Amino acid sequence: AGREMSNPQPLEEKVYDMSGARLALTLCVTKAREGSEADLDALEHMFQQLRFESTMKRDPTAQQFQEELEKFQQAIDTREDPVSCAFVVLMAHGKEGFLIGEDGEMVKLENLFEVLNNKNCRALRAKPKVYIMQACRGEQRDPGETVGGDAMVMMTDDSPHTIPTYTDALHVFSTMEGYIAYRHDQDGSCFIQILVEVFTERKGPILELLTEVTRRMAEAELVQEGKPRKANPEIQSTLRKKLYLQ
Question: Could you list the residue ranges that cross the membrane (predicted)?
Answer without folding.
Answer: none
